[in-house]
């Protein structure tokens, strides 16, 4: 048979749910696999997964064929998943559109053969005519098989690293058509089988296989060293044959086929082989080598009571549009095998056809004894590929994968709290590693997806990207000797005076005049009574100074009128401490305003408080944070349904003073009741004092970003309880700031999940995020000319 047309030779008789009844009498249970992300697994993870596979498969009925199939296809990135509305979104969408990458699909098949016998002749034509009586209903034998397989799959899924789900009829048909159509898209075609080649449509096919014990070297393991990311002081691991997976970067299929035979039969067979070789080992060194290998396998099997003898076959089917490219791919695959000390077999002519056609799931029971190696199940399972591409969430912040820099969406908000209970985040990186650049990237995308931002900035890093949204942002800048325009006492009418508002005001006052004392319930009630009395007595122009003067005027009879015991409110102490903030007091300028300016921020979705000039004054910084807090409470937190983020940039400068740290902790407590998150940016985790307040902040921070740090990560690992694999990931960070695809790498941990991501951006986005240097000055100069940041960026990038 030299030509096959699938429509004339249908391999499938019937499909019921995920059960295929094949035309050769086989019954196949089909699953699709969801594997962990590449580079996310540690040495122990690989061992655990290997153990899970062994436990799951060892008890399957004798005669079962297990076929794991990993299909890798070259694709172009479509950008469909990326947002495409704003200036920077459009630039990102276009930048990545059409980028080449590898798509990976993993399938797992369990095959019950018609007669349970796995002793085929050398070549089996899978498309030969079959006698009529093919089972199409679930008899007891099949039901028992289905139950065994379900138990195995449940065991694998319970390992929590992998998930195999039933593959439905539509998916099975799509796979079948794709396989026999040679993965040609847009047209149906025939399979041409010549002695010298296999062609399907435009694609030329070839194969390499491991079909004998003699192919293997000294040993196989569940994982090996990843040379690309390993250095002198740490080892980064990958699966044993991962080099034949995603990183091969070619169109190919890896087929791992296991025949679960009767253990005793194959032990006898190996014993017989040893006996024969012993007789002939004097006749040549090759026989000695073979004897050694088989004796080694037997010894392992006899030493391990759990050993399950199986026959196995691994092949790689690969293809290309150009026949001449096949040689390059062949040598690439052989090189990968050589690194594993494995010598693959290169099938020709009839054998090549046999391998390619019988690597389809309905036919994978067709291999003969000549095509199979005999070994222990544990040994064979080292040849399973246990990872896949980076996975995108349906929505999220765009980062890039580590293989092709393809956009990956990561849901760091986690609306349903599947991965994290608190969505607060922290960015750690030394100066010059791109902290502000990363923060700009995260915040800009949040903002464009409808999240409200409040940035408390001591470095001036955010006004540039804010200017891309002229109607939606405001910058409140502190200048020495001037106020911020926030009056916490301001009310537009008496309806504003809710119990919550009085509560907030009383907290604000206590923070000002008794920041080092614990406030009792009696004191809190007293202040709220005085506040209500003030608002009832004075109808307009409310302010801190007005409140102070009101208490001063009425100090003789105030406590008696409101039935407050002097122990609960010390009028003299209050007037003395608060005198600093009113009249000609040292900090009176902070509260001078009587008209409140918070209406300016009420309808803005991007609010930047620039406190650059205040960073070294403990008192002013502390008051500023309290004022900002009161403004946020009255405007942004009024609507609890609205998503919001508060970012503290240059956070360390704000942490030098204890009362500031406690002020910040308040935000962490309050944000729990809101639909919000808090972000902090630090050069090093050592900048967080080692005390209970810091511990509370870190406990409530469950999304971690760390950029490259040449001083190491020991403190980060210690304070955040990171695993040894997290540390290996951190150490493997490498930036590439030259060449056409510049990127930085970063470690991202969301709850328990961690991996290394890249950040590559188009030139327009790069220009928007720049915060200093000559290029930045050039953009600001262009902006000052026509007051349009988008225009300035377009003009700047057109030159570069």
TrEMBL record:
<dbReference type="InterPro" id="IPR022509">
    <property type="entry name" value="Conjugation_ATPase_TraG"/>
</dbReference>
<dbReference type="Pfam" id="PF19044">
    <property type="entry name" value="P-loop_TraG"/>
</dbReference>
<protein>
    <submittedName>
        <fullName>TraG family conjugative transposon ATPase</fullName>
    </submittedName>
</protein>
<dbReference type="InterPro" id="IPR043964">
    <property type="entry name" value="P-loop_TraG"/>
</dbReference>
<dbReference type="InterPro" id="IPR053155">
    <property type="entry name" value="F-pilin_assembly_TraC"/>
</dbReference>
<feature type="domain" description="TraG P-loop">
    <location>
        <begin position="396"/>
        <end position="798"/>
    </location>
</feature>
<dbReference type="InterPro" id="IPR027417">
    <property type="entry name" value="P-loop_NTPase"/>
</dbReference>
């Amino acid at each position: 048979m030299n030509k096959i047309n699938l429509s004339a030779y249908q391999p499938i008789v019937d499909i019921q749910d995920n059960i295929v009844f094949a035309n050769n009498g086989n019954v196949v249970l089909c699953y699709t696999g969801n594997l962990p992300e590449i580079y996310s697994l540690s040495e122990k993870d690989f061992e655990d997964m290997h153990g899970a596979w062994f436990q799951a498969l060892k008890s399957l009925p004798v005669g079962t064929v297990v076929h794991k199939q990993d299909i890798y296809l070259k694709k172009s990135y479509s950008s469909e998943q990326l947002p495409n509305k704003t200036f920077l979104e459009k630039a990102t969408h276009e930048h990545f559109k059409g980028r080449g990458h590898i798509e990976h699909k993993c399938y797992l098949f369990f095959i019950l053969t018609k007669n349970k016998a796995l002793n085929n002749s050398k070549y089996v034509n899978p498309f030969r005519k079959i006698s009529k009586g093919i089972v199409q209903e679930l008899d007891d034998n099949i039901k028992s098989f289905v139950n065994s397989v379900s138990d195995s799959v449940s065991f694998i899924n319970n390992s929590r690293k992998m998930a195999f789900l039933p593959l439905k009829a539509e998916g099975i048909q799509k796979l079948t058509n794709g396989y026999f159509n040679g993965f040609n898209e847009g047209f149906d075609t025939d399979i041409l089988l010549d002695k010298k080649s296999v062609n399907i449509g435009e694609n030329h096919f070839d194969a390499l296989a491991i079909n004998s014990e003699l192919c293997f070297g000294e040993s196989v393991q569940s994982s090996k060293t990843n040379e690309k990311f390993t250095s002198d002081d740490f080892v980064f691991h990958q699966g044993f044959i991962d080099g034949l997976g995603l990183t091969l970067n070619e169109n190919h299929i890896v087929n791992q086929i296991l025949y679960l035979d009767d253990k005793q039969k194959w032990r006898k067979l190996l014993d017989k082989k040893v006996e024969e070789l012993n007789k002939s080992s004097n006749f040549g060194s090759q026989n000695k080598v073979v004897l050694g290998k088989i004796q080694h396998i037997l010894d392992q099997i006899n030493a391990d009571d759990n050993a399950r003898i199986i026959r196995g076959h691994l092949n790689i089917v690969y293809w290309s549009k150009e026949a001449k490219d096949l040689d390059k791919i062949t040598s690439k695959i052989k090189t990968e095998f050589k690194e594993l000390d494995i010598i693959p077999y290169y099938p020709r002519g009839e054998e090549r056809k046999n391998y390619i056609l019988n690597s389809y799931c309905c036919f994978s029971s067709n291999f003969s004894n000549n095509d199979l190696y005999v070994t222990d199940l544990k040994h064979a399972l080292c040849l399973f590929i246990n990872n896949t591409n980076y996975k995108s969430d349906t929505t999220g912040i765009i980062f890039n994968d580590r293989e092709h820099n393809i956009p990956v969406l990561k849901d760091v908000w986690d609306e349903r709290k599947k991965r994290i209970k608190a969505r607060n985040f922290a960015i750690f990186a030394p100066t010059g590693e791109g902290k502000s650049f990363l923060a700009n990237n995260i915040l800009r995308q949040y903002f464009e997806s409808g999240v409200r931002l409040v940035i408390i900035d001591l470095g001036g890093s955010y006004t540039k990207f804010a200017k891309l949204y002229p109607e939606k942002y405001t910058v409140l800048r502190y200048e020495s000797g001037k106020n911020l325009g926030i009056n916490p006492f301001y009310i537009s009418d008496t309806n504003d005076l809710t119990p919550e508002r009085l509560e907030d005001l009383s907290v604000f006052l206590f923070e000002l005049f008794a920041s080092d004392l614990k406030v009792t319930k009696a004191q809190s009630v007293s202040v709220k009574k005085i506040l209500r009395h003030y608002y009832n007595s004075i109808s307009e122009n409310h302010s801190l100074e007005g409140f102070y003067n009101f208490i001063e005027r009425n100090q003789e009879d105030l406590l008696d009128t409101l039935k407050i015991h002097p122990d609960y409110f010390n009028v003299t102490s209050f007037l003395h401490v608060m005198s600093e903030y009113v009249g000609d007091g040292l900090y009176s300028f902070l509260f001078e305003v009587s008209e409140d300016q918070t209406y300016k921020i009420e309808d803005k979705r991007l609010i930047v408080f620039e406190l650059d000039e205040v960073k070294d004054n403990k008192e002013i910084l502390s008051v500023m944070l309290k004022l900002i807090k009161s403004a946020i409470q009255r405007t942004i937190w009024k609507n609890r349904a609205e998503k919001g983020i508060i970012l503290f940039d240059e956070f360390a400068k704000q942490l030098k003073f204890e009362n500031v740290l406690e002020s910040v902790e308040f935000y962490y407590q309050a944000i729990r009741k809101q639909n919000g998150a808090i972000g902090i940016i630090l050069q090093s985790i050592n900048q967080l004092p080692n005390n209970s307040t810091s511990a509370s902040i870190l406990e409530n921070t469950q999304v971690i970003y760390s950029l490259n740090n040449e001083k190491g990560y020991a403190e980060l690992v210690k304070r955040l309880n990171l695993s040894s694999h997290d540390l290996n990931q951190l150490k493997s960070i490498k930036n590439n700031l030259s060449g056409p695809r510049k990127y930085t790498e970063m470690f991202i941990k969301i709850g328990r999940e961690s991996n290394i991501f890249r950040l590559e951006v188009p030139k327009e986005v790069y220009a928007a995020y720049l915060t200093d240097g000559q290029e930045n000055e050039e953009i600001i100069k262009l902006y000052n000319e026509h007051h349009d940041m988008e225009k300035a960026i377009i003009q700047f990038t057109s030159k570069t």
